[in-house]
Amino acid sequence: MFMKNSKLDRRIKYTRKMIRHSFLQLLEEKPLGKITVKEICEKADINRATFYAHYEDVYDLLCKIEEEFYQEVLSFAGDMGQENYTGILPAEILKKIRENEELCKAMFSKYGDKEFLARMMYFAKEDSLGAWKRLYPDMEEERLEWLYEFIVNGCEGIIRNWALNGFESEPEEIAAFMAQMFRSCVQGMKTGENVAKGSDPSATGV
């Protein structure tokens, strides 16, 4: 019985992998609305009944692929502990993103869902702002909100460029650059506040 279940699980995983692979290849070639279940089935060498045993339609397939990716990355972020999370993606999470190279390239392609990574980062907004408030208790909450929007869009652009260039740079290099960008932004904001208050900018520390 155990052997039968094990073989069935492997078969299901393989089938879903082939469906996903075929779909992502098509997404690089045409808009989501133009992709049909028939095309996916032909490319994956399965019948329509098999597809519908796993997914309701093409949109459900995309949703489940993205949800799986979000859960994998965000569960890893949760394991880091809220007190260690600053909102800047560490190298470990960037490695997870690189492991999903096929997905990321498809999503960042001409016809992909270019907002999917930004949505993932917004899921962590509450934890990020909480960490920033602890790090910079004197900074106004509204300014932290502005900073978050700026950082999220900047990081998303960096990762998109990284993916479309074949993930050539190492995750550690990307993580270090984003952390430096974050520190520079905070330094600039604090310096601006001090100048506005008439204090010495050189006294600002991050």
Shape label = elongated
Number of helices: 10
Based on secondary structure, the structural category is mainly alpha
> Rounded to an integer, what's the Rg over CA atoms?
21 Å
> Structurally, how many domains make up the residues?
2
Question: Strand fraction band?
Answer: under 5%
Largest sheet: none
Helix-residue proportion = over 70%
> What's the helix-strand series?
HHHHHHHHHH
The poorly predicted ranges are none
The overall strand count is 0
Output mean pLDDT.
83
- Spatial gap, N to C terminus: 60 Å
Structure description:
The protein has two domains: 1-55, Arc Repressor Mutant, subunit A; 65-203, no CATH class. 73% of the residues lie in helices and 0% in strands. It is built from ten helices and no strands. The radius of gyration is 21 Å and the shape is elongated. By secondary structure, the protein is mainly α. The model has no long low-confidence stretch (mean pLDDT 83). It has helices at 2-27, 37-44, 48-54, 58-80, 91-99, 101-107, 116-123, 125-135, 141-164, 171-197.
